[in-house]
Task: inverse folding
């Protein structure tokens, strides 16, 4: 049976079938007559969009919709494939500050050590471009840098370890495919060891034999195929090894059919490299090259821009079929593979009814947070022998910092629009920028970086560029007067002038002399803003950082590192990571959603292990907690809890609870704890990152805070032990939380109520105050109290009051009123250890004595007599508790040192102290 017999009759038109075997592009931001003709008259099936076509998300959305409409009106049975390179880092075809987020390159993501971040970045990237109508992403890059220090790919690929490239490639595929977009791995069989031979060889060559490739560079492609990658792009490089003499890999049956199809068992779509190569045009011709590519096994031939070349390719394919070089079955076999891919990633409903940019607006907050986190965790400190980082520790004082940067072509994602011709010298300080000459576009990125660094350091940052002319007297004078020097390099291992310049600067900095003629080292920090291999083994460079790209977010993170806001967490991917043995296994912990049916018993065991593992002098806030202590099951509160577990034994190694308060748009990380025997393995880090991303994915999110008033196990960061408190502050501070805005929150207890008495002085103050205390009985009063609570609560306490309001008999609400104007001054909820509500204050259950509790104590912040209000509410509550025969009173949520002192004056002692008000900086 012929290949086309199983297809719709519409495909019996051979011209229509052959049109699906091309992917073409053009120059310009609008549909041209040429591209319209290709779609309408030649039934072009795929479009390649590049930065030449795209200016904004909105215009891209309209452009793609116009292209699909042209195809639909021309009678295309299926929509166009719309392909895009969106690798992140320095390779993004679509950039739009308003709607498209900038994410790190593949190598930078690998430097985070987190496969979860890789998957999340891939998903976020794919979501953004599918929203504008793209349905095929030309990624991931699966090349293995087997000769890492001389390759043009640089940070576009994961690194030099085939196993690691494979793992991250699989994570990217998973993230991409979760959005419905089609994926295309590249560049088969590998661009990881290209040689530039010269001597008339005008294209790069692969010198590895096919056997060498198969044992190393092909592993990521094998695993990508096993994980369902939709397409593979075969490169245009030559193969000159023994047994393989191909001018272009994508024209070789040995590479495409024998190696990719048969050896790797790939049944998806094969794309050729763009055939608009000078060497191919000169030696073969595009028409002949198109026939050779299809005959080799390619399904789609790519031709980027020239309309004349594109016409030549179409004519060549038709001629190849007419003269019998290609059979119709060969055309229809490729067509079926192309149609199968399209069926998975597009339809006319999707193509003609685009999602719209509102989705991008909704994703902006979560994607921005993901970008910032990924960049921060990617910055890699390769060496810092003299501890020059952060610069804030060097006591620079009034001394200037010198920034030296190479002249570079700007990245589309980082360039600031402007004009200019040459780079020279400027000054970057708090609010002044002066330039002696115009600044070329590539320098504006570094100028802006210098300005921001100077503002943070509160000192003057001098910025000038360097070129292949090397070090000049101006550079030497600036180095001499500077308190510290920062040299930026980009692929210095290939741009040798950068390497020589930097080593010369290092020699000067290492031989500076002070007034007493003693030799001293001037602080020198070298930052590679592309490949990390610039000075990876150059020991004369004592401090070496890598950002992997020089986009704005990367340089923002670099400013944070240099000024001590955060510490560099990245590690050199691949063999560099193995040598340093710095890749914590915990970066690979699998985080799962908590399941009551599966995990309830294991969670109770974990809670007991944590409590038992705490020192006796620091009694855990988890005492008395059970699984129910973390489940609220309330309308208006979204909850999601996460675990790291042993799937074989069912044991839990860590737990994290999260809540989303829809009314206020507040996300809460309510608890985060790890089995004491498994700490320092980054289980907590894995749980935290998963919880944070879950909260950032909530629509209408306004803030994320640590600690919860409902349930009330942890009111913030535990602060009972000074050492542990400092560790937690540093841990969460490195993850973007504003620790400086925290305040004291305590849980307190008063024992032996039967023998307790209040000082006469306090009683007198309470009697003289114009404040009345009572329980809420009237529904109207309940509404007034709820209004007060909604206004003054911040951690979910309102939910406790809703429960108490619904059952005022079981949970009386005590409120304080100003007797002059009747306004509410404060309130609290009364309960005891026998009540259901006590599950949210586990300590009530654990007490050896029968206890009562005052929950969610709220005082109007502006009240001048706040301490009196607190003492009056507590005294009224104690009287009710004593009347029930209870012997202990637990007071929850006492805020601030003043409040703690007021409660202490009554006789309460602190059980647990916390730092409340800690929020993630969004």
Result:
């Amino acid at each position: 049976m012929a290949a086309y017999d199983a297809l719709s009759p519409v495909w019996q038109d051979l011209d229509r079938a052959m049109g699906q075997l091309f992917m073409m592009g053009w120059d310009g931001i609008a549909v041209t007559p040429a591209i319209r003709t290709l779609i309408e008259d030649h039934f072009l099936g795929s479009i390649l969009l590049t930065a030449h076509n795209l200016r904004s998300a909105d215009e891209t959305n309209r452009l793609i919709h116009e292209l699909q409409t042209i195809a639909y009106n021309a009678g295309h049975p299926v929509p166009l494939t719309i392909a895009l390179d969106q690798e992140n880092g320095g390779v993004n075809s679509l950039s739009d500050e308003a709607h498209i987020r900038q994410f790190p390159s593949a190598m930078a993501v690998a430097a985070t050590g987190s496969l979860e971040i890789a998957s999340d970045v891939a998903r976020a990237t794919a979501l953004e471009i599918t929203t504008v109508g793209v349905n095929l992403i030309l990624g991931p890059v699966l090349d293995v840098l087997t000769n890492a220090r001389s390759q043009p790919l640089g940070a576009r690929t994961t690194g030099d370890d085939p196993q690691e490239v494979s793992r991250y490639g699989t994570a990217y595929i998973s993230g991409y495919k979760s959005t419905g977009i089609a994926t295309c791995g590249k560049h088969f069989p590998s661009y990881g060891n290209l040689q530039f031979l010269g001597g008339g060889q005008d294209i790069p060559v692969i010198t590895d034999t096919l056997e060498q490739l198969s044992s190393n560079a092909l592993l990521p492609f094998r695993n990508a195929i096993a994980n369902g990658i939709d397409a593979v792009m075969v490169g245009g490089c030559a193969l000159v090894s023994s047994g393989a003499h191909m001018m272009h890999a994508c024209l070789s049956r040995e590479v495409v059919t024998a190696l990719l199809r048969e050896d790797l068992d790939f049944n998806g779509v094969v794309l050729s490299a763009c055939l608009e190569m000078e060497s191919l045009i000169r030696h073969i011709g595009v028409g002949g090259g198109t026939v050779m590519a299809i005959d080799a096994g390619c399904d789609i031939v790519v031709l980027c821009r020239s309309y004349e070349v594109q016409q030549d390719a179409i004519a060549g394919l038709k001629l190849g079929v007419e003269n019998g070089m290609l059979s119709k079955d060969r055309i229809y076999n490729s067509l079926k593979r192309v149609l199968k891919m399209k069926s998975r990633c597009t339809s006319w409903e999707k193509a003609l009814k685009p999602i719209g940019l509102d989705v991008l607006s909704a994703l902006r907050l979560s994607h921005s947070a993901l970008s910032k986190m990924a960049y921060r965790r990617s910055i890699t400190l390769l060496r810092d022998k003299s501890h020059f980082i952060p610069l804030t520790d060097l006591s620079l004082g009034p001394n200037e910092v010198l920034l030296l940067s190479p002249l570079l072509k700007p990245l589309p994602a980082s360039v600031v629009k402007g004009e200019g011709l040459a780079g020279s010298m400027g000054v970057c300080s708090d609010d002044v920028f002066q330039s002696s000459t115009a600044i070329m576009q590539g320098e504006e990125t570094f100028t802006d970086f210098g300005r921001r660094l100077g503002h943070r350091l509160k000192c003057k940052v001098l910025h000038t560029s360097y070129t292949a002319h090397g070090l000049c007297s101006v550079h030497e004078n600036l180095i001499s007067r500077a308190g510290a020097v920062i040299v930026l390099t980009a692929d210095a291992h290939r741009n040798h002038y950068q390497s020589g310049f930097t080593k010369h600067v290092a020699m000067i900095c290492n031989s500076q002399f002070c007034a007493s003629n003693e030799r001293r080292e001037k602080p020198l920090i070298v930052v590679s803003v592309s490949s990390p291999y610039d000075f990876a083994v150059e020991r004369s460079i004592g401090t070496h950082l890598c950002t992997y790209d020089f986009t704005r977010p990367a340089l923002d993170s670099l400013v944070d590192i240099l000024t001590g806001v955060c510490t560099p967490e990245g590690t050199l991917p691949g063999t560099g990571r193995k040598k340093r043995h710095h890749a914590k296994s915990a970066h690979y912990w699998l985080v799962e959603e908590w399941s009551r049916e599966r995990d309830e018993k294991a969670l109770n065991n974990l809670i007991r292990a944590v409590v038992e593992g705490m020192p006796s002098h620091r009694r855990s806030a988890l005492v008395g907690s059970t699984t129910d202590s973390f489940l609220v099951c309330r309308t208006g509160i979204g909850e999601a809890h996460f675990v790291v577990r042993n799937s074989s034994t069912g044991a839990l190694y860590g737990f994290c609870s999260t809540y989303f308060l829809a009314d206020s748009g507040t996300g809460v990380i309510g608890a985060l704890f790890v089995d004491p025997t498994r700490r320092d393995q980054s289980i907590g880090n894995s749980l935290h990152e998963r919880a944070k991303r879950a909260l950032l994915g909530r629509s209408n999110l306004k803030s994320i805070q640590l600690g919860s008033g409902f349930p009330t196990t942890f009111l913030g960061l535990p602060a009972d032990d000074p050492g542990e408190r400092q560790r937690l502050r540093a841990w969460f501070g490195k993850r973007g939380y504003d620790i400086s805005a925290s305040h004291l929150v305590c849980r307190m207890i008063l024992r032996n109520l039967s023998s307790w008495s209040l000082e006469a002085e306090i009683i007198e103050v309470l009697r003289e105050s114009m404040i009345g205390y009572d329980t809420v009985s009237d529904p109207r009063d309940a509404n007034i109290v709820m209004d007060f609570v909604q206004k003054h609560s911040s951690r979910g306490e309102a939910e406790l009051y809703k429960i108490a309001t619904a059952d005022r008999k079981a949970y009386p609400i005590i409120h304080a009123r100003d007797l002059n104007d009747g306004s509410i001054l404060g309130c609290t909820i009364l309960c005891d250890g026998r009540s259901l509500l006590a599950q949210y204050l586990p300590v009530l259950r654990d007490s050896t004595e029968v206890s009562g509790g005052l929950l969610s104590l709220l005082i109007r912040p502006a009240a001048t007599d706040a301490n009196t209000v607190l003492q009056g509410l507590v005294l009224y509550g104690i009287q009710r508790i004593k009347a029930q025969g209870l012997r202990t009173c637990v007071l929850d949520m006492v805020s601030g040192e003043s409040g703690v002192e007021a409660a202490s004056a009554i006789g309460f002692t602190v059980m647990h102290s916390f730092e409340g008000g800690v929020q993630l900086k969004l």
